[in-house]
Specification:
The protein is of the alpha+beta class and 249 residues long. It has two domains: 105 residues, Pseudouridine synthase I, catalytic domain, N-terminal subdomain (Alpha-Beta Plaits, 2-Layer Sandwich); 114 residues, Alpha-Beta Plaits (2-Layer Sandwich), CATH 3.30.70. Helix content is 21%, strand content 31%. The longest helix is centred in the first third of the chain and has 14 residues.
């Protein structure tokens, strides 16, 4: 009779903030998890494994971005069976990952319920073929509505839901973020910033664009470049703040 394998106990947990940049934004969540598990082996991280007949690395992911979306604020947590230096582990793992999948920061997990702190996301959307006046008019039209129903195609068929309720803030950015390509002699471009609550149903950037199309007919002429800039709790001012702060304290 097969006996479930017993693993060494967890003695340390580390939380990482990571980025998906450039062409690596097209990696799916499954692609990233495979790359990360390879990096764990290459960096010889003392990762803890689950018990049972089919042990697997103790890695937890939170709120992964859709495929094709860049991010500066993705999060994961690993469990270790040996105590290590967090920054040294981060550097070794980062070196073992492909360029474009970058581990930005690490903290030792000292608080529970980390995923619950990821209340909202700050998104950046670069709209090509849209000028500032049109964008601001569409935003005003959206924000005065109490509900905007959009439709998303899923594997189970088309799904209709309210996109407006999750939007905490939406505005035209006056200053473009670094490394964002803005057309020069080509069509006009505008950058939107949006604070959207993470919830169920999850309202994604393409749902936000669909809502702007519903209320104002706003339709960019090229695919929209989307980046998640931040993710974390919402403060009293409606800003997304650092979810690592409680662990640092």
């Amino acid at each position: 009779m097969d006996v479930p394998h017993q693993q060494a106990p967890v003695v340390q947990r580390l939380r990482f903030k990571y980025a998906k940049r450039g062409r690596l934004r097209f990696t799916s969540h499954r692609d990233f998890s495979r790359a990360f598990e390879r990096a764990l082996r290459r960096a010889q991280v003392p990762i803890a494994f689950s018990s049972g007949f089919s042990p697997h690395p103790r890695v937890s992911y939170a709120n992964a971005t859709p495929t094709g979306v860049s991010s500066e604020a993705e999060y994961l947590e690993i469990a270790l069976n040996e105590v290590g230096n967090p920054e040294e582990i981060r550097a070794n793992l980062d070196a073992a990952l492909p360029i474009g999948l970058d581990l930005i920061e690490v903290v030792e997990a000292k608080t529970p319920d980390f995923a619950l702190r990821l209340e909202a996301s700050l998104w950046q959307l670069v709209l090509v073929g849209i000028d500032q006046d049109a964008a601001e008019g569409a935003i005003r039209a959206l924000l005065v509505e109490s509900e905007v129903i959009v439709e998303r195609k899923t594997k189970d068929g088309n799904r209709r839901f309210d996109a407006r309720g999750a939007i905490s803030g939406l505005w035209v950015s006056k200053n473009g973020a670094e490394n964002v390509p803005i057309a020069g002699d080509g069509p006009p471009s505008v950058i939107l910033k949006a604070v959207v609550r993470n919830g169920s149903p999850s309202v994604r950037p393409d749902d936000l664009l669909a809502a702007l199309r519903v209320v104002a007919g706003l339709a960019p002429t090229s695919p929209t470049l989307v980046t998640r800039l931040a993710q974390g709790p919402l403060n009293a001012s409606g800003n997304v703040v650092d979810p690592f702060d409680p662990d640092r304290q």
